[in-house]
Amino acid sequence: MVPRAGSGVNRDDFFTAAPYRRFTEFTGPGADRRAVLCSVLKELLLPYAVLDIAGKRHIVAGPGVREGEAPGIILTAHYDRSPRSSGANDNGAAVFLLAETAARVRRGGIPVLFVFTDGEELSGDEGLQNQGAYGLGMYLREKGFDGARIFCFDACGTGDTLIISTTADQLLKGREENPGTEALRRKVQELRRTALDAARTARLERVLLIPTPFSDDGGFLRAGLAAQTITVLPRKEAAPFAALVRRKGEVAAALLSRAAARPKDRGSIPETWRCLNGPSDSPLRLTPEHWKQVTAFAAALISGS
Hints:
Oligomer: single chain
Number of domains: 1
Strand content: 5-15%
CATH superfamily: Zn peptidases
CATH architecture: 3-Layer(aba) Sandwich
Helix content: 40-55%
Strand order of the largest sheet: 1-2-4-3-5-8-6-7
Low-confidence stretches: 1-7
């Protein structure tokens, strides 16, 4: 790897520092990603546990959370990947960014959970109830943790523009109107406002609210828990897509779900998203010179909780 011109970040040096020195191993062919991630958490001196729920194995690290205490905020990143991909951006980058954030705040005493989820990737015939986040959401409700604010970090490794997803609106719009749906809608709006506040606290210059592909938020919403997806895009891709959303609204949002089935729609989707779940999701596409923006945003979410 070579440094990007003017970035001020030497990529070779970046991937030799903790926790990122394990990134190549994590994204390598045939990697046991769960084992590598658990080893990374040990190296960072972060206590963790593995939750086996409905055949999915979620890894939970909880600095500041005591036994039986409800967390005020939950930050998630899925560690599974498509079998056709290295999973560098989807979702290795976000996993390591949250691991770094967890190490930074472990002595802060704030009741926050970091959850590295399993089973985010779905096959074509599976619905959201098959997603690992669905079973995890039901578990959190059973434990009385359903009041926590949930933020899902996904595809955060390529770009300089923070994206606060509005895709949950589409799922909720398709539900039967009832008090539960309206309550979920209000909670999602609250999460969105919290994310905007955190972006201001972190002094991020480029922030957009636009529809994105679903992440773990889909499974959580299906389980009746509000969740907000956070992702990142390069500005040269984010700005045109945001303009398309302004012009076409729901039509642009629908393109995201149709793109896989209708190749002619793919040209309207940001290139970074088109590369997910395939061999083009390569570490060479990552922009670690911008990763400090994501960790600063995550830290601001936690400090504001």
